[in-house]
Amino acid sequence: MEEKPRIADSFLFKAALVFVLLLPVLLCRDLTPANEMKYLEIADEALRDGHFWCLFHNGEMYTDKPPLYIWIVMLFRTLLGRHCAFLLELFSLIPALVTIRVLERWCGKLLSARYRNAASLSLMTSAWFLGSAIVLRMDMLMTMFITLALWTFWKMYEGDTGLKNRLLFPLFVFLAVFSKGPVGIMVPLLCIPAFLLCERTLRFMGTVWGWLTWAVLALLCGIWWFFVWREGGDEYLNNLLFHQTAGRAVNAFHHKEPFYYYCYTVWYAAAPWVLIHIPVLVWALVKRVKLTASVRFFLVVSAAFFVIMSAVSGKLAVYLLPIFGPVCFASGMILQQMEEEHPKAARTLSGILVYGSLSILFFAFIVGLFFPDWLNSLL
Asked: Reduced to 3 states, what is the DSSP secondary structure of residue 112?
């Protein structure tokens, strides 16, 4: 018997609920001086000095981040005549909701409403995902574009290799890079081949990473770098392409951590639901559960990205954000499979994920509404 659709199971209902429950936090919290206020200052400096492609902070080159997010800050500053923190926060929350929507559509035919809700809500309320959805950062924007790139790849892998997807794939990859930097290309470029290798379909690389993909990327990156060179000269371009990229990867000057850094940070970055998702995934591997192709893809991409990021010198817990979604939805699909042999356990765990996530959102609502000072001290 097919499930009867319920309003509470729809994405629009969940998105509206998340927005309403997080609204007090978005409206009442103060911007953090270390990062968020710095982005506003960079935007102000760019508007004052007439810089568009090259960013500066207090007169010094700021090549840490590409300009896309700063452009958004500049746009609202120009339109409104002032900075509006609430509108800027939406450019973290909306990408978070789009990421969830993409994953729901991706797995829509594979997940019942119960396990789809469990995956979506547990993703939304994972510590660093929830935090990144309400602060002014580029990470959620990058995560959205990476998820869109992976979904586009998957549609091509399943047979839809038309021109539309072959153009959208490099566009999403470029926008991921243009949001955050080289991390944006690492998942599509390095993790997709890992999956194809595991599936013994490596020849498909010629389709997804063929000449058209590289041509589109070269064109877009060429336009970006040309205007950077034209506005900032050789020094700025060299700093952007080599100092920031190679420096962070090999011998980081910021956030340098040992290779095992993510082995312990993931437990609090993805808390509290990592305590359910990881054991579920381990159970499936130990029991040699027959996994669907989508689950295998999510797991291989997540594992490959984890290893790759561990090898990179510069590390922050938030850098793992792009694999939170694949892990949550892979776990949801495995829980649904578990229901065949262990219905009570599967339903109990999915219930904990759903009602526990709702409790976190209601807690955030209460804190934002009645205890904003405590919230600001926490941030």
From this structure: coil
Beta strands in the chain (DSSP E): 56-57, 60-61
Rounded to an integer, what distance in angstroms lies between the CA atom of residue 344 and that of residue 340?
10
* Of 34, 54, 32, nearest in space to 43 by CA: 54
Among 3-12, 36-45, 326-335, the range of highest mean pLDDT: 326-335
The CA–CA distances, whole Å, from 327 to 91, 112, 168, 294, 306 equal 23, 17, 24, 11, 11
| Model pTM above 0.85 | yes
Average pLDDT over residues 261-278: 95
The letter for the amino acid at 123 is L
Across the range 288-293, mean pLDDT stands at 93
Provide φ and ψ at 57, rounded to 5°: -130, 115
Closest CA to 29 of 124, 126, 130, 134: 134
**CB of 74 closer than 8 Å to CB of 46:** yes
Q: Report the pLDDT value the prediction gives residue 1, as an integer from 0 to 100.
A: 36
Q: Provide the terminal-to-terminal Cα distance of the chain, rounded to the nearest Å.
A: 47
| Residue 25 token pair | 């936090």
